[in-house]
Amino acid sequence: MLTESELQAILVLLDDSDDEVLEAIESRLFSEGASIIPQLETLWVGNDDPVKAARIEQIIQNINHRDLGMRFENWMHSEQRDLLEACLLVGRIQYPGLNEAVVNNYLDKVRLDAWMALYSAGNPLDRVKILNHILFERNGIAGNQSNYHAPDNSFLHKVIETRAGNPITLSCLYSILAQRLGMPVFGVNLPQHFILAWCEEETPGISDSYNAPKSLNRSDYGKVLFYINPFSHGQIFLKKNIDDFLAAIKTQPRPEFYEPCNNLEIIRRVLRNLHFSYGELQNKDKMNRISDYMNILGMRGETSAQDEDEN
Questions:
Q1: Does residue 270 belong to any structural domain of this protein?
Q2: What is the domain range of residue 97?
């Protein structure tokens, strides 16, 4: 890590008009990797020189972009493809210095509150009602109706901070918590909306709310028993309701509209939404950067949100 005096020396050179000097500075900072970002952010926030501040900001964005690309690549090829890990990577697109400890502390607190209440739950419906109460009533989590397409709705840590999000990010939060409580809840890639499914427990005792792992495997569970809509405070509904929804939006039913999807498909959809949100703001730079991450996740050439702007 660079010393304070080395950083100050670099800062002096940032108003140099020589492109070669600026490239050398950026190359030196790049060699430090993402660990240098907090120091650069401190310099950026405390700098009164608009030229230097703008160049520091650009360097932070470039370092973060390269680091995130490598981290998305690693996640893509990991065996687990942990949903929370990917959600935090998405958050770093806009907030490179986000504090993961705050997110994990929140999840631990809500999980503990829910676990202590679940002793009285005798069936899946009761368990969902308890988690709904903890998350939506006690913690005030809700769908962002007033600013539906805001980019912050796609960042899990901002949803936790503001208590508002879009359907897919609320579903991510809900399923992460549910699975940590041993509840077999998985995402469903419904057109123009994103929902969750509760799957049947085939092996008695597999869903132990106290000893549950951080994430569950869809293959360990059976058929879908019912669906959950986190954007509507955890409303519970059945297959017939999906049939009615598809008919209302004039979409032919397909098997994948009823069955859980994997975490890669979830994150792909999150990025489509985010690309659309920045498109609404005409932020070309952010759109291009997100396109790079989409390419890494096997979405090469897919730069339009299509129907995803509704979820």
A1: no
A2: 93-264
